[in-house]
Specification:
Layout: H1 7-22, H2 41-48, E1 56-57, E2 61-62, E3 87-93, H3 99-115, E4 118-122, E5 129-133, E6 138-140, E7 148-153, H4 161-172, E8 187-189, E9 236-238, H5 254-263
Helix pairs in contact: 3-4
């Protein structure tokens, strides 16, 4: 018996290995150690943000100072595309982050590099840039503000793959899925389960939905108990199927990536 594999067998083995390597969900998932528990993304973010003294909208959006950031669907709020067709976004990372933590941030950014025309590049001397800092909480401004723009990823509670991408998406101009203009067709907001002082976090926004469907699996969708007055009470219920999962933090969904490509003309 000839021990050497024939070209046909070699091809079959190659195809089998290729198939196994591609056998993963379309969603970009972070490290397995990050997704073994069932804590949703909003619980992670809001718990971390309890320590901050920043004025935040919807839990993790820096309140506008010089403009109404909640209507950020104009070119002035987008990062600019170069003549090479790439959208270059300069950034800095605080020296407070360890080498391993920097790698986690870079890993989350690399997904944008592989699936969109966005490129995060270390800042040289550019005026507009994102400053990734270890502040008290996970939060970002909405869209490009101009100048130095803080994106906070607290070392103790925010360095999860999906949370990093969630805050980056805010910096790109994307709002929370459950506040989009047509959300009432897809989720029910249980106002009776929400602290009245927190109700403003669920107000619908005038959003550009880019002709894309409502996405329960979006990395921008908060979990069902966000801002709930009591543990176990749902503030958000998917309709018509209340059992649909919302608030995942594994990474961007298919439509998250598609929207980036649509908004930035990739």
């Amino acid at each position: 018996f000839d021990q050497r594999m024939t070209p046909t067998v070699s091809l079959l083995m190659l195809l089998l290995l290729l198939g196994l390597s591609q056998a993963h969900p379309l969603q970009d998932e972070g490290n397995e150690e990050e997704v073994t528990d069932d804590v949703d993304i909003s619980t992670r973010i809001l718990t971390s943000n309890n320590a901050t003294d920043e004025i935040l909208l919807e839990g993790d959006l820096l309140a506008p100072r010089t403009r109404n950031a909640m209507r950020c669907w104009s070119q002035s709020c987008q990062w600019r595309k170069g003549s090479n067709g790439l959208v270059t976004i300069p950034f800095t990372v605080s020296s407070e982050f360890t080498s391993w933590e920097r790698q986690k941030i870079q890993y989350a950014m690399n997904v944008y590099h592989s699936k969109t025309c966005l490129r995060f590049v270390p800042r040289q001397s550019e005026y507009d840039y994102i400053s990734i800092e270890n502040r008290a909480g996970c939060f970002s401004a909405l869209g490009r503000e101009g100048g130095r723009q803080v994106l906070s990823l607290n070392k103790q509670g925010c360095l999860y793959h999906g949370i990093i991408q969630h805050e980056i998406n805010h910096a790109l101009g994307f709002q929370h899925e459950q506040t989009r203009s047509d959300r009432d067709y897809y989720v029910r907001i249980n106002w009776e389960n929400i602290n009245p002082q927190m109700a403003y976090n669920f107000y619908k926004q005038s959003t550009n939905n880019l002709n894309t469907p409502y996405d329960y699996s979006s990395i921008m969708h908060y979990g069902r108990t966000a801002f709930s007055i009591q543990y176990g009470r749902d503030s958000i219920t998917p309709i018509p199927d209340a059992n649909v999962q919302i608030g995942q933090r594994r990474g961007m969904s298919y439509w998250d990536i598609m929207r980036i490509n649509l908004l930035y003309g990739c």
